[in-house]
Amino acid sequence: MTTSPQWDAIHRELQLTAELLEDELSTSQLNALLAQRAKQFATDVQSLSNFQQRYFLKFTVGNEIYGIDVQTVQTIVTLQRLTPVAGAPPHYVGITNVKGQILSALSLPIFFGLSSSVDLAKTSFVIAVQLNDMRLGILADMVHEVLTISAEQVSTHTSDDPSFIVSLPDGTSLLDLMSIANDLKGQSEEHSK
Predict the structure, then answer these.
(1) What backbone phi and psi angles, to 5 degrees, belong to 187?
(2) What is the spatial distance between Cα 160 and Cα 163, in angstroms, rounded to a whole number?
(3) How many other CB atoms are found less than 10 A from the CB of residue 181?
(4) What is the DSSP letter of 83?
(5) Tens of pLDDT along 89-145?
(6) Count of domains in the chain?
(7) Which of 44, 45, 184, 188 is deepest in the core (most CB within 10 A)?
(8) 36-69 burial string, b = 16+ CB within 10 Å, else e?
(9) Which secondary structure element, helix H or strand E, spans residue 91, and what is its range?
């Protein structure tokens, strides 16, 4: 029996996901995973120091507080309906209609390896973002405010602090969506092979 390369890739991805879900991560393994993700998706502190002020949308997913550059935000809408897509990577939890456009819905906790599922009872919003040629919806429990950030407010985490990315004193993690988009593209290309 011959299977197509696409089904083989999907099978491998599902098998890897199943193995990850079967294994409970110890605290040290979770910290190592978070440190790896923090390094991989960190906003370059040097580039942050090259600005006097920038604006970030602050939102909550689970227990995490994130900030994304408002220049990437197209719109914010209430999550109406989420339709699962068979064979999609786990961090794409479905598709949703945002003002007439169908967007892939991204779960940051699943993408960062912090969770294996989404609590849709708590998920209330879709933040539609445009990242060069990629448009997607980031799922959020709450959307708070737009922060005005100066370079002096930005600090990096040390290796013994497993929190993400570049952080503000209040614990808000600023995400570099372009790095995340590049990783998503790479994963999608691998997933479709």
Answers:
(1) -65, -40
(2) 9
(3) 20
(4) B
(5) 999 999 999 999 999 999 998 888 888 888 888 899 999 999 888 899 999 999 999
(6) 1
(7) 184
(8) ebbeebbbeeeebeeeeebebbbbbbeebbbbbb
(9) none
What is the mean predicted confidence (pLDDT) over 51-79? 90
Apex 175 CA angle, 169 and 178, nearest 5: 155
**Domain containing residue 136:** 5-192
52 with 154: CB under 8 angstroms?
Answer: no
DSSP 175: P
pLDDT at 193 over 50: yes
Instruction: Report the CATH number that the domain containing residue 91 is assigned in CATH.
Output: 2.40.50.180
Mean pLDDT of 78-96: 92
Tell me the pairing of strands 155-156 and 134-140: unpaired
What does the alpha-carbon distance between residue 84 and residue 92 come to, in Å, rounded to a whole number? 9
Interval 144-190: pLDDT, tens: 999 988 766 655 443 333 334 577 878 888 888 888 887 777 665 55
* Burial bucket for residue 103 (CB in 10 Å: 0-12, 13-18, 19+): buried
